[in-house]
Specification:
heterodimer; A: mainly alpha; about 80% helix; about 0% strand; B: mainly alpha
């Protein structure tokens, strides 16, 4: 992958990630406005396990504004992660091993942070 | 321990509208939304400091990714330098996130007040400084990390070398640390570092700094998530507001940049700094 091609792919990934996330979040907020009864007494703390369980077992029991809000935040957080993976593969394609190593270090640090958060 | 937050739908919508205003102000002065979003949430809506920082970190991912998508496409961003310096910013951000979660609300609030005061001083310098614009069109040998881009304002190809990488990595670690600790993007540290220390032209420095912010914020967001500080509705409303506002602010930034406005901005920052220091 040539550098200019890599730049195009990175740019589009970021654009699509932000647009998808913003759309999901706006849908979540509109859902709350349309169904204010779904507004809980205390606002929920983001819970990935709860979200993934709802996706796996069917979302009927999950308030749908929350579903959109959760999905929007998750898509947003995954956007820079996708960017790190794209630059990693882009450098590997160019056989630029020094920068493959730097990308792997960044990925390793993020994985450590994820393990603190999820694990 | 996760903190329960009681908020009405009206409050959530007010936060979204407030997010638009903080995003516009941030976009106008190129300082990112976090610097205004955190005091807005803490001082006006009594959101605890840790939750405000977590909300800001997620908002920072949105604004920086939106800006980076444009800058990368225009080839202002030095992707290789960005990835290299991210090894410093992400390590710093993880440490900052861990540190923030053991510090009290009061300490974090005072630290944030101190940071805002430093930002106010840096902005105040703009009042008597001429606009800084580096117009290096050489050297022909750019080295492994050097790059070039076409600057439409200068109507020419700008080429540059990158120097003092170890020092740049050290400052990147510090910038990442402050980002993870206080929920800001850290461009206020990285842009001067890259221009003055590493020799990048202003446009490349701003774009490369922005490129790193999303990944840096990602490195600390999981620590706030683990501590139960990311609230879906608060975060969703803030992100939508700040993202929309920052796009408007960036659009207006070329049209409203007068010294009176910068002076007003400094006054607002100093007021926020004092209120954050005295908040708890």
């Amino acid at each position: 992958m040539h550098t200019s091609k890599l730049e195009k792919v990175v740019s589009w990934t970021l654009r699509v990630g932000v647009l998808a996330s913003a759309s999901l979040l706006v849908l979540g907020i509109i859902g709350l406005i349309l169904q204010p009864s779904m507004m809980p007494p205390t606002i929920p703390v983001l819970n990935l396990t709860e979200f993934l369980e709802a996706i796996a077992t069917g979302t009927s029991s999950f308030p749908y504004p929350n579903l959109f809000l959760y999905a929007g935040i998750i898509v947003l957080v995954l956007t820079p992660l996708a960017r790190v993976l794209i630059t990693l593969f882009g450098f590997a394609f160019q056989k630029d091993w020094t920068f493959v190593v730097f990308s792997l270090i960044v990925l390793l640090i993020i994985s450590f942070s994820v393990s603190l958060g999820i694990g | 321990m996760p903190v329960s937050l009681s908020m009405s739908l009206e409050t959530i919508l007010l936060i979204a509208v407030g997010g638009v205003i903080t995003g516009i102000i941030g976009g106008l002065f190129g300082v990112g939304g976090g610097i205004f979003l955190i005091p807005f949430l803490v001082l006006l809506f009594d959101v605890p400091m840790h939750q405000a920082i977590a909300t800001s970190i997620v908002a920072v991912i949105a604004t920086s990714s939106a800006a980076a998508s444009v800058n990368v496409d225009r080839r202002f961003t030095n992707i290789r330098l960005g990835v290299l310096l991210e090894t410093g910013t992400t390590a710093g951000a993880v440490l900052g996130g861990i540190t923030a979660n053991v510090l009290s609300e009061a300490v974090l609030s005072r630290l944030f007040g101190g940071l805002i005061f430093v930002v106010a001083i840096l902005m105040a310098r703009r009042l008597w400084q001429r606009a800084y614009s580096r117009t290096e069109t050489g050297p022909s040998e750019r080295g492994k990390l050097g790059a070039s881009y076409f600057d439409p304002a200068l109507n020419e190809e700008v080429r540059y070398r990158v120097s003092r990488i170890p020092a740049g990595l050290g400052v990147s670690f510090l910038a990442g640390n402050i980002s993870g600790l206080l929920g800001i993007g850290g461009g206020i540290i990285k842009v001067p570092m890259m221009t003055l220390l590493c020799g990048l032209p202003m446009k490349a420095a701003a774009a490369t700094s922005n490129f790193m912010i999303g990944v840096t914020a990602l490195a600390s967001v999981f620590i706030y998530y683990a501590n139960g500080h990311v609230h879906a509705m608060l975060t969703g409303a803030s992100v939508v507001g700040v993202l929309g506002g920052s796009l408007v602010g960036t659009y207006l930034s070329g049209k409203l940049h007068g010294k009176i406005i910068t002076g007003l901005f400094v006054l607002i920052l100093v007021t926020i700094a004092i209120r954050m220091v005295l908040a708890t």
